[in-house]
Every structure is written in C-alpha cells, then in structure tokens.
Amino acid sequence: MKNLPAPFAPLVSGGDGLDRYPVRPGALAARMAALYGVAPDQVLPVRGVTHGLELAFRLAARAGQSVEAPQAEPFRTLADLYARPGSGARPGVVIVRALGSPEAVAEMAARVAPALLVVDEGLAEFAETPSAATVIADQANLVVLRSLSLAYGLAGARVGAALGQAATLQRLASVLEPYALPEMCVRLALQAIDPSRLIETRERIAATVRERARLTKALGRDMPVEPGVGPVLMVRPADPADVRAALARFGIPAETAGERLRLPVSARADINDRLLAALDLAPAQARPNRTGQAVRDTKETRIVCAVDLDATGPVSITTGVGFFDHMLEQVAAHGGFSLRLACEGDLHTDPHHTIEDSAIALGQALKQALGERRGIARYGFVLPMDEANATVSIDLSGRPYPVFEGTFATPFIGDYRTDLTAHVFRSLAEHLGAAIHVSVTGDDDHHKTEAVYKAFGRALRQAIRIEGDAVPSTKGVL
Q: Which of 262, 345, 383, 472 is found 20 to 30 A from 319 (Cα to Cα)?
C-alpha cells in the first residue's frame, strides 16, 4: 500500500501530484550539482544541515562513537586529539561545525581516516573561503553539508544537500528513512535555485555581507562582537537584558545565549538602521527605501525582478535577449533606480513571452515599490535622439491606460522584435497602474526604440521623485 497513490487529490491549491508518494529527487540533485560545482552522483538531497548531521550520527551509532569539534580552531583541536597518545578508540564520524580552507579540510580528512569527516557549510555562501566540496574527489571519507535555509530563504522548507563521493553518500543513504524529502519541499527548492533566481539571490547575499560588516563596525564601538559569517551577529553587551529590551521596543528580535546576544542581520539597510537606532548608535531613518519585487512563473518563463527606487545600483539584467537587456538597463539608468531582472524563457520558440512577461514583472515590482505613492511627483517627459523624437508622458495615478503611437519598419534589432515595443509599454501601464502615453517618430528604428526606453526612464525618474509626504491627489489616494 505504501507506494500506491492516495484515492483522491488533496483539496489544496498547487497540489498536483501530491496524492503520490515522493520519489528520489533526481532533478533536485542535478540542479544542486550545478549549483555546488560537483557531479550529480556526488549530491544527496537532505532536509537541511540538521538532517545531514542526523544521518552522520546514525552512522556513528553503528561505529560506536562520534566527535564534534568546537567552533574555535576546530582543525587544531582535532589534530591535537588525534595526535595525543592513548586517546582511546577513534570515532567513526567527526563533525566540524566551522568553516576552514579546502586544504585544511583535506588534511584533516586524511588525519581522521577511516572515520567520516563531516563539515557543516550551512553558511558557506556568506564566506570568502572556497567550499571544501572542491576536494571531495580526493577524499573518500569527506562529507560536506550545504543548506538552502539562509542563503536562499528556505529555512521553513528544510532542504539541503550532503556532498561527497558516490560510495560515501551510499553509506549515508543506507540510514536514510523512506520518503525523506517531501515533494513540496523539492518543488520549492527547485524554484529557489532556478537560474532565473540566482542574480537576485547573489545580490541579497552580497548585501547581507556588506550589512554585517557595517553592523559589526557600529556595534563594535559599544560592545564586543564575535567574528563569524552569515546573517547572525554574536555580541557581548555589558547588560544583555537592557539591550534586548531596547531592541524589543523597535520590534527587533534578539536571542540570549548565556552572556551573549544573537542579533539578526538583514540584507536591507533600513532594517539594520532600526537596530542601530534602538541602541542609540545611529539616528532613526525618516523613510525607508522604496523597494519592490516580483516573482513570475508561467509555462513559458521564470522571472525574478527587484527594484529599489532610492538607490542607483546595482543594475543587472539577464533575459537572453541582448538588445532588450540593453533597453531595460537604459530605463534603470535614466530612471535613476536599482533594477535586477533575470528571466529563463522559451527563446528557442520566440522572444515574445520573455519580453512581455519581463515587462509585466517590472511593472509589478515598480507598483509594489511605490506603495501608497505618498509624496511622489506623479507626472513626467520628452527625449530627442538624433533624428528620432520620443515623447513619453506618465501619470502614476493607479489607473492603467496605455497609448502608443509609432511604427517600426525593421522587424528585428538583433534578437529583439520591434513590434513588441508597444506590448512592453502596455504591460508596464497595466501592471504598474499608470497612464503611459508614448509617441515616437524618426527614420532609424534603432534610434526610435532606444529613444522610447530612455524617455520612459526619464519620465519615470521625474514621476517617482519624492517632493513631500502627501499623496498627490485631491482624493487623497492613488
């Protein structure tokens, strides 16, 4: 009975296929292999680092013993342990819970053999140290644990990977329980590490690293901050209870660990500014950056788009349509805002879906970033480019109304279809919630197209500019 499907599908949205028991997640293993730079047979998907450790403990139970290295100087500590005469029976599994160089890991793996060396790399994405996975091929007793919890935002889904030689992973799989990874977790993981997500994910990780360094410097003037990596800071304030109470008043969570406090590090500067303001280490920010994000998955495209209207960078566009990427870069550059957009689309068929769906996602992200549209200028622009002249008028009224006047004689500029230009601005108007009127004339279709996108960026720059705090409408709402 255990392999038979349920008698009916569940009454949940997105539940297709959940009436069947999960199978071995081969597609997830393949995608993780590409992500971590190893072969597919060197990946065993697990329920996060904790599950990987649990499997190691099960193997240790068979062998009779395990050793866990302390965080501080684990490699020297374990070297001392193994070099000490009369230290007793060696364990079957050794756990290292701190990041070290691949060379140090390889040396330790050789030292503890034939015991299994398990290295916790749950925070590896936030560190500059190369992954120990680079030495797996030469170390039959090495297992490296990776996680999607923090670097990919899937802490609640519990998905990770054990990396090692195929024979080594077979040992771990021998103590793996049936149906170890639920189907929904597999689906979420496949989405989270899809190539379309990686540009934004890498920017979030980089932002977290930058913000950790900034917080460390600011907090270090008032209390000791322990070294480390990732979105958590360990600090030793003179009065932990007083600091925790101050943070609570600003809605900042903090956990007590003895005489230390565990503080969160956000990828967003405004959230970290609140933490510093709570401790009187920085003035409270009057207005947070206006940010928006759209995740759009269809049968034809997978898209992530993120904007920050109050930052000029980074700007990173990857749709697979080179000229369209350049046009969106022009929108961001002339609009004066940060834009990251990545799309994996069916370009083997036609660029239509990629271009139109990307415009939809951009409109959605801009709409979210504008929020109540309080204080914006609302309107805006004209832009000549050589013989071409583009007029773009915008009203960020919340009411979509597209108008496009202009024709193109050239069907393609590179791999960009010129007839889709009108579709782009219609999609932007509909999903941004704006009246967008475009008129373009000229002789060179390249110039005309580029003028339209640049003029739109300039019009948007004017319309999103903050002029006060009121909603620019006599109705009091947009």
A: 383
Question: Residue type for 62, please?
Answer: R
Q: What is the mean pLDDT of residues 122-139?
A: 95
pLDDT at position 475: 74
Query: Alpha carbon of 230 to those of 205, 237, 243, 322, 426: distances in Å?
Result: 9, 20, 21, 35, 42
Residue 259 main-chain phi, psi, to 5 deg: -90, 5
**What is the DSSP-derived secondary structure letter of residue 381?**
-
Please name the residues in contact with 114: beta carbons below 8 A apart, sequence gap of 6 or more: 141
Residue 368 CA to residue 371 CA, distance in Å, equals 5
Report the pLDDT averaged over residues 402-411: 96
Summary mean pLDDT of the chain: 91
What pTM, to 2 d.p., does this model score?
0.86
Put residue 376 in one of left, alpha, beta given phi > 0 → left and psi -120 to 50 → alpha. Answer: beta
In sequence order, the 6+-apart residues with CB closer than 8 A to the CB of 330 are 450, 453, 454, 457
Q: Which two structure tokens, joined as six digits, stand for 317?
A: 């566009």
Does pLDDT of 73 surpass 70? Answer: no
Reported as half-sphere exposure (CB side, CA atoms, 13 A), residue 431 has a value of 21
Pairwise CA distance, residues 271 & 252, whole Å? 9
Neighbour-count burial of 208, counting CB atoms closer than 10 A to its CB (0-12 exposed, 13-18 middle, 19+ buried): buried
Q: Can you tell me the distance from the alpha carbon of 309 to that of 211, in angstroms, rounded to the nearest whole number?
A: 19
What would the mean pLDDT of 158-187 be, rounded to a whole number?
96
Backbone angles phi, psi at 317, to 5 degrees: -125, 125
Residue at 276: amino acid letter = L
Query: Please, are residues 326 and 282 in contact by the beta-carbon 8 Å criterion?
Result: no
- Is the bond preceding 314 in cis, omega lying within 30 degrees of 0? yes
Q: Are 373 and 396 in contact (CB under 8 A)?
A: yes
What confidence tens digit (pLDDT) does each residue in 29-60 have? 999 999 999 999 999 999 999 999 999 999 88
Which is nearest to 93 in space by CA: 76, 75, 112? 112
pLDDT tens column, 254-284: 998 888 999 999 999 989 999 999 999 988 7
Cα gap 66→476, rounded to integer Å: 66
Give dist(CA 425, CA 359) in Å, integer.
8
250 closest CA partner among 218, 280, 278: 278
In angstroms, the CA 397 to CA 477 distance is 9
Tokens of 179: 């149906």
Strand order in the sheet with 401-405: 382-385, 388-395, 435-441, 401-405
- And the tokens for 65? 């013993």
| Other Cβ atoms within 10 Å of 279 Cβ, number | 20
